[in-house]
């Protein structure tokens, strides 16, 4: 009888070890976005697959952390508002990641807006606008021969990705703040002044002075106004 009990105890111990090992394997097999996917599917977000693909791309490119992906998704899903607004905000972030544009500051604005209990519809408008502004500013800089990457044999000025992103982000943010303050996109000199003041303030601390001078010397007031106008259309 003692031998039987011993055998049973050993079998039970072996089964426990197997189950613990299996559980450990399952946990280790979890991907960084599993929790995000659970949130999206539980909320029945129609564009879940596209959002997950964009988030995964951002994580792979080191432009998004799994923690930020979960944080912003959780805040958006838990926020008061209709499903269409929640999906639109998530898609604005996804499209920013798809275009390899800076997303951190957009996430900050989403989280801040929700924390301040700003209506989700207003957050949707603001995030979509600023995401479009980034794309427009990037294209404007490209047209002026300023881009991220290696020097081109055809001319232009290549900047390291991080320096280029800083220009795109802060020019876009200046335009967005100017619009939010009631400024007209057709008042080109005022638009340019808003951007100039922002870059001058950050020059030498956040942005290299040479990058500030490069952007301001090549971009015209009317072009900045048109970039803002295009984002509003």
SSE inventory with pairings:
Layout: H1 2-28, H2 34-42, H3 48-60, H4 66-78, H5 83-98, H6 104-115, H7 120-143, E1 146-148, E2 157-159, H8 161-180, H9 188-202, H10 209-218, H11 221-232
Helix pairs in contact: 2-4, 3-5, 4-6, 5-7, 6-7, 7-8, 7-11, 8-9, 9-11
Question: Low-confidence segments, ≥5 residues, pLDDT <50?
Answer: 1-29
Contiguous helical run count = 11
What kind of sheet is the major sheet?
A: 2 strands, parallel
List the helices and strands in order. Answer: HHHHHHHEEHHHH
Task: Determine the strand fraction and express it as a percent band.
Answer: under 5%
Number of domains: 2
How many strand segments?
A: 2
Structural class: mainly alpha
Distance between the termini: 84 Å
Order of the strands making up the biggest sheet = 1-2
- Approximate helicity band: over 70%
Shape: globular
Mean pLDDT: 88
Radius of gyration based on Cα positions: 24 Å
């Amino acid at each position: 009888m003692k031998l039987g009990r011993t055998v049973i105890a050993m079998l039970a111990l072996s089964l426990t070890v197997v189950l613990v090992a299996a559980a450990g394997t399952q946990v280790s097999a979890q991907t960084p976005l599993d929790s995000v996917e659970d949130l999206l599917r539980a909320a029945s977000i129609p564009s879940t697959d596209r959002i997950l693909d964009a988030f995964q791309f951002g994580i792979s490119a080191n432009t998004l952390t799994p923690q930020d992906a979960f944080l912003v998704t959780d805040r958006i899903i838990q926020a008061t508002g209709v499903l269409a607004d929640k999906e639109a905000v998530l898609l604005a972030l996804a499209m920013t990641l798809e275009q390899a544009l800076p997303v951190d500051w957009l996430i900050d604005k989403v989280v801040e807006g929700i924390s301040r209990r700003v209506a989700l519809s207003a957050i949707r408008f603001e995030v979509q606008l600023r995401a479009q502004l980034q794309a427009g500013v990037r294209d404007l800089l490209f047209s002026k021969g300023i881009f991220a990457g290696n020097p081109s044999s055809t001319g232009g000025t290549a900047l390291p990705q991080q320096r280029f992103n800083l220009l795109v982000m802060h020019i876009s943010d200046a335009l967005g703040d100017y619009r939010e303050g009631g400024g007209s996109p057709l008042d080109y000199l005022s638009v340019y002044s808003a951007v100039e003041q922002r870059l001058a303030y950050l020059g030498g601390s956040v942005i290299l002075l040479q990058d500030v001078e490069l952007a301001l010397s090549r971009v015209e007031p009317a072009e900045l106004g048109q970039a803002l106008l295009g984002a509003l259309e």
